Amino acid sequence: MTALIENLEADHKRFRRYLVVFNEEVRNLAQSDGSDYVLLNQIATYFAGYPDELHHKEEDIIYARLATKARSRRVELRNLQQQHVELSQRANHFSDIVSMILNNEQLPIDKVVEESVAYRNILTAHMSGEEETLFRPARSLLNQDDWWDIEQAISNLYAEEINYEKARSVLAIETSLDKYLKT
């Protein structure tokens, strides 16, 4: 079922588009050039919510199945999967920083820029690693039965674990960001 991989790849493309805007706003912030803090907050909130609530959970299910088929890549797959924790922590930390700025707390701009650049770099490298180590091998090594089991596991996950209120909230932000990018 390459449709699931195609959806995850589409997420990565969307993440990269959002990172372009993120980079522009952080650059404006660094240059004291009128950063749009509301937009920056939307992006930070999105990255603190969507990947954890939806995207990474689906990838984790694929990681688990692929690890049984690609034993030589187990360590590499496990490392990428464990990066989800660090990405979540950094996204939440940056979201907190932006919230502090919106609440008029004085923060050193260089520290804010440093945190944002670190998050962007880790996320970008992580996505590239997944595309090479997870998506490509999954397409070739997983069979129809594997994909059926993965789809069932994702269905069960959605039925049991997804916080639908949080998911709706981040999807509303996604819609708003997509509209912003079209203007």
Give the CA-CA distance, first to last residue.
Answer: 34 Å
Mean pLDDT: 90
Rounded to the nearest angstrom, the radius of gyration is 17 Å
* Fourth-tier CATH superfamily name: nmb1532 protein domain like
CATH class: Mainly Alpha
Number of helices: 6
Summary, kept brief:
The protein has 183 residues and is mainly alpha-helical. It is 87% helix and 0% strand. It has 6 helices and no strands.
Overview features:
87% helix; 183 residues; single chain; Four Helix Bundle (Hemerythrin (Met), subunit A); mainly alpha
Structure write-up:
The protein is mostly helical and 183 residues long. It has one domain (2-182): nmb1532 protein domain like (Four Helix Bundle (Hemerythrin (Met), subunit A), Up-down Bundle), CATH 1.20.120. Helices cover 87% and strands 0% of the residues. It has six helices and no strands. The chain has helices spanning 2-30, 37-69, 74-102, 109-141, 144-160, 164-182. The chain is elongated. It starts with a helix and ends with a helix. It comes from Hyphococcus aureus. Pfam families: Hemerythrin. This is Hemerythrin domain-containing protein.
